[in-house]
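Lay summary. Proteins are chains of building blocks that fold into shapes, and those shapes determine what they do. In this project we predict the shape from the chain. Here is one chain we studied, written as its sequence of building blocks.
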Amino acid sequence: MPNLHRISILAVGAALLAAPALAQQLKDVPRNRTLISQGWDYYNQVPTPTNLSPYNGVVLNQRNILNYTVSESLFYTNHITNTPIPWQAERMETSPDYREVTITLRPNVRWADGQPLTADDVVFTFDTLLKGPPQMALGGAIREWVEGATATDARTIKVRLKKPGPRWAEDTLATGQTTRFVVLPKHVWQGQDPATFGDFDLAKGWPLGTGPYRVVRSDQSAIVLDRLDHWWAIDAGLAKALPAPERVIYRPATQEAMAQLFTANEIDMGRALEVGSLEAAMARNPNIKSWNSKGPVWGITAGCTYRFVMNNDAAPFTETPVRQALALVIDRDQVANLAFEGSVPTVRAPFSSYPAMQEYTKQLQPIIDKLVGKPDPAHAEKLLLDSGFKRDAEKHWHLPDGTAWQITINTQQGDAVGPVIAHQLQAFGIDTVFRAMPDAQYFDAMSAGTYNTVIFQHCGSLYDPWQTLEHFHSKYAPPPGQRAPNLRAITRYRNPALDAILDKMSARAPSPNDADYMALVRDATRIVLSDVPQVSLTEEIHAITYNTTYWTGWPNAADPYIAPFQAWDGFALVLQHLQPRQ
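And here is the predicted shape, written in a compact code that computers can read:
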């Protein structure tokens, strides 16, 4: 084995760092003190190496690397136990009428340049999101809910809501998923145009955060971050020491390359492998580990489900019987067995299996059983014939106007669900193809509403059914040609009766023991399952993949100190647990 203590960043590989002149300017850090991540989304290069803004591109650099190195959150949450973890702030309180939230910052939180993080920074962030351009991530949600924010002293912020929001503070300030609230340093962002400001100037220390790392290089091949010499969290008693990794590297990769990168010890963490690839990688490299110590269920739920989404703005999916018919064609058991090798449970509603959610789903089971049954192609055929569709002598389906019915299913690269659904629809007589797309084009088509159908995860219901049911609210269905304001709400489904129920739910504190709230949950679930804006397929179980050749201390079933998804903000706590193996 080569002397690891003499390996510089150049030795990580030419494919990782493609500009030797720049790489030579970086200090030497041995491989066994360097943490290398593929990120979360699939890219073959850094998508925007000079745009490191936390609000311009939610699926770009923020959730792939910056959220657990440079940026920190007011609060984290261990979603496995639904336990909040105060971080930059020490507490938040919602008023009895759910119209005001008081945030109290910890004393002596400091930006990496030594300036204090104060209530003025938090207020400035709210103002920026309220007044910023529509494309700013989280901006739409903030404008919907927040009337304004004021600082009453250096550590206290009062946020006034436009309407009662009993779960607003937790969902917006502590969830750390799509709705990630990142406090901006006012002394950096003031006077900048948030629509174009990339928050990138290495000489000035940008992007500037309160986390223990700073970016020292960013180009198309990688983003490299080095550990700072000082971190406020140690002085505050939140951390005992600086994280052990002296350097963190974000090295994007495509899905096809992942197994080899893990096996060859070229990355330590990244997007979860598919079960077959994981088991093959484990056979070749015993240092590859997952959440569970044995299969076939290696992973853990991400609080999400897989779904087949029909664009409710695109004919013929504008018609409810058509959507109902396709739901009757789909065989969930076959999806679970063929796409996931039997390693995930099927689902018939858009709810996860987190313990807090099970208190609701147990009560909803009679509705689910009544409205969502086993595949029934004969019933599907009747629904379509009654709607004017026709079948030719070869049993191929035609639209009411006589043209052949063609369906295109958009998928991410490496997705195994799309081919199974396409085969099922083809067997039923619909000309169906699936199209595996790079993430950038895939997400753009969903947001713009230019897709026909798509396979996508449905995340949100961590402790309350409203968290996914609200994605069917008409407010998320813009006119054709306009972009959807929420990437989780992509069906473009509209139903005023459901809107009224969801509005009532949003104003109530959720509880499975509240009979009135449960009545609203049942009514909303009944409408969604009857109208079928999408088809829920299986739970999303990530076979979380770690390489323990250089680092140990990863969260797992035996030590679930935080949910193991690096795209979530709480992953910052993982770096504090990691210890070098060599």
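What the prediction tells us: The mean pLDDT is 93.
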